[in-house]
Design brief:
Layout lengths: L2 H14 L5 H17 L1 H8 L8 H26 L2 H27 L1
Helix pairs in contact: 2-3, 4-5
Length: 111
C-alpha cells in the first residue's frame, strides 16, 4: 500500500473523527507516513479495519430466546394470578414472536 493510498483512506476517516488541531494533525500524518514506510503490511491492515458487526442471525436468535423466556415468565405469572390477559400475552410472546422471527429469517434467506 502506498503512502498516498494510506493517507487517502485516513483522510476519509478523519472526516468522521473529531477535528484535530494543526499540530496534532501534522504529528498524526507524520506517524502514518513513518508507519507506511517501516511496515507497509501493518499499515494496510490498519487501513482495512472495520468495526465489528454482530450478524443479523445472531441478533434474531437472541431476540427469539429473550421473547420465549419473557413469555414463559408472563405465562406463569398469569396462571398463578388466573388472569387470562397475561396468559394470552405470555403465550404470544413465547410462541408467536419467535415463530415470526424464524419465518422472517427463512424468507430473507430464500431471496
Amino acid at each position: 500500500m502506498t503512502t498516498a493510498t494510506f493517507r487517502a483512506h485516513n483522510e476519509k476517516e478523519a472526516v468522521r473523527a473529531m477535528a484535530l488541531h494543526g499540530e496534532e494533525q501534522r504529528r498524526l500524518s507524520e506517524i502514518e507516513r513513518q508507519l507506511a514506510e517501516e511496515n507497509p503490511r501493518l499499515a494496510q491492515r490498519l487501513a482495512e479495519l472495520r468495526p465489528m458487526r454482530i450478524p443479523g442471525v445472531v441478533l434474531a436468535v437472541l431476540g427469539a430466546l429473550c421473547s420465549m423466556v419473557a413469555g414463559l415468565f408472563i405465562l406463569v405469572a398469569g396462571a398463578q394470578t388466573q388472569q387470562v390477559f397475561l396468559m394470552i400475552l405470555g403465550t404470544a410472546l413465547s410462541c408467536a414472536v419467535p415463530t415470526a422471527i424464524s419465518w422472517r429469517l427463512w424468507l430473507h434467506r430464500l431471496r
